[in-house]
């Protein structure tokens, strides 16, 4: 680290322009509070289209990027920060853009030896009019996070997902359709350390009701977390190694989170996607897993700032 935390001016970016704005505001408030609690000078920035001008005027030493979703997580804001030559947390332009595009990231992960789901991209109107693959399957936007706009079509369903063909659908004309993999919902947080990616542990997530959607992820009581996940040893180790491999293959830095499904009947582990800017709310998985391995919330936030300041 170039300087003690209490000598740094940290701009915490939060809010932003995406459908995940409210989650980002919660993440940003938590991170800003943690930094202020360690005597850093913090400016909280509700990021908008004038971000470059705002940061030019502020002249922070480092940016903590607590944005989620499009614009803040897909390489756009990272490009602004690169242009301004301001160190920032999380992944760079290429890894951020790649991870936000589910189709392209699956191709990279598959080539690296990571097991990913089948399926592919389809026109949303076609998906709304007929079953493009046999149920059960999952329909989701190709470039959104936090389970925004995700639908589960169950086995035996008579109709497809009409909602994706609606005039007010705001998530692009192509959607990802993947076979639904029954079993456990797992998550692995990875820290991109100097010696290589380090997976922390595994959380087994059970929604309180229904599907693991936006509300289940972020509402109090929306899901229960078993930490560490109760898995056969070979599956536990495989999930950790696959998460580390995915972090490296995508070119991530800082903190990432790998989301898996584990079919415990057929012993099949599949990586669904990589999140390059995991949530930092009170119900988020990354801080929970860090605490399990002995790194409390404030320490995790400090580590992320220190990592941003490491020479590249």
From TrEMBL:
GO molecular function, one term: metal ion binding
PROSITE patterns assigned to the protein according to its UniProt record, in alphabetical order: ATP_GRASP, DALA_DALA_LIGASE_1, DALA_DALA_LIGASE_2
Taxonomic superkingdom: Bacteria
Ligand binding (Mg(2+) 1): 259, 273
Requisite cofactors: Mg(2+); Mn(2+)
InterPro entries: ATP-grasp, ATP_grasp_subdomain_1, D-Ala_lig_Van_CS, D_ala_D_ala, Dala_Dala_lig_C, Dala_Dala_lig_N, PreATP-grasp_dom_sf
Involved pathway(s): Cell wall biogenesis; peptidoglycan biosynthesis
Gene Ontology BP, a term: peptidoglycan biosynthetic process
Residues bound to Mg(2+) 2: 273, 275
Function per UniProt: Cell wall formation.
Protein name: D-alanine--D-alanine ligase
The organism of origin for this protein: Brevundimonas naejangsanensis
